[in-house]
Design goal:
- The structure holds 2 protein chains of 2 kinds.
- Helix content of chain A is 0%, strand content 53%.
- In chain A, strands 2, 4, 5, 6, 9, 10 and 11 form a 7-stranded mixed β-sheet that branches.
- The model of chain A has no long low-confidence stretch (mean pLDDT 95).
- By secondary structure, chain A is mainly β.
- The termini of chain A are far apart.
- By secondary structure, chain B is mainly β.
- Chain B is built from no helices and 11 strands.
- Chain B has strands at 3-6, 9-12, 18-24, 32-37, 44-48, 52-53, 61-66, 69-74, 84-89, 95-96, 100-104.
- In chain B, the strands form 2 sheets. In chain B, strands 2, 4, 5, 6, 9, 10 and 11 form a 7-stranded mixed β-sheet that branches. Chain B has a 4-stranded antiparallel β-sheet with strand order 1-3-8-7, with no helix packed on it.
- Chain B is globular.
- The termini of chain B are far apart.
- The chains are: A mainly beta, B mainly beta.
- At the A-B interface, strand 5, strand 9 and strand 10 of A face strand 4, strand 5 and strand 10 of B.
Chain lengths: 121, 105
């Protein structure tokens, strides 16, 4: 059973860079046809897809966030990471890491539990 | 591509048949998924490829549609089904609909 766990600071100052890591257990991040993704959800609002990375290193980003987002993968640690630069209060949200599988047209079949990141001075 | 879910809020009783609609601003073939989210929890995949039930999901959930109009149907609403439901298009970059909250009548 694949499990994903987000980790990183829960508080980030405005204009700084938000950094989160997702650790994958129960399977190798390098095996299979999967994308590894980040999604966020502001309190009381809907879901926003941020971006994803394939194990080859190829990435796709939400056009509205593309200029500020970097997603990377560390296969040796079975982890992938999110960096979001120049954050503002609008970036305050629960951030989820997730897996998208080719078998499901890349729908998200596994999610982390989510981690709240607050942007505040 | 934009996704519009309707209704945004739905009040229903246990045993009711419930239908949620998701409309895409342009054709996305069958590249659509549905998720259920309960408060404080991560979403759960219910249906992918518009009509394929994810493993372990009860058969009272079904999906249909292709192109620009899709529906999620719960044939007989159960107490554990009160939640928020999201559609997601998978044709280009993934995009979620605005959500439909299903509450107890």
């Amino acid at each position: 059973q694949v499990q994903l766990q987000e980790s990183g600071p829960g508080l980030v100052k405005p204009s700084q860079t938000l950094s989160l890591t997702c650790t994958v257990s129960g399977g190798s991040i390098s095996s299979g046809s999967y994308y590894w993704s980040w999604i966020r959800q502001p309190a009381g609002k809907g879901l926003e897809w941020i971006g994803r990375i394939y194990t080859s290193g190829s990435t796709n980003y939400n056009p509205s966030l593309k200029s500020r987002v970097t997603i990377s993968v560390d296969t040796s640690k079975n982890q992938f990471s999110l960096k979001l630069s120049s954050v503002t209060a609008a970036d305050t949200a629960v951030y989820y890491c997730a897996r998208e599988g080719s078998y499901s047209n890349y729908a998200i079949d596994y999610w982390g539990q989510g981690t709240l990141v607050t942007v505040s001075s | 591509i934009q996704l519009t879910q309707s209704p945004s809020f739905l009040s229903a009783s246990v045993g009711d048949r419930v239908t949620i609609t998701c409309r895409a601003s342009q054709g996305i073939s069958s590249y659509l998924a549905w998720y259920q989210q309960k408060p404080g929890k991560a979403p759960k995949l219910l249906i992918y490829a518009a009509s394929t039930l994810q493993s372990g999901v009860p058969s009272r959930f079904s999906g249909s549609g292709s192109g620009t109009e899709f529906t999620l149907t719960i044939s007989s609403l159960q107490p554990e089904d009160f939640a928020t439901y999201y559609c997601q298009q998978l044709n280009s970059y993934p995009l979620f609909g605005g959500g439909t909250k299903v509450e107890i009548k």
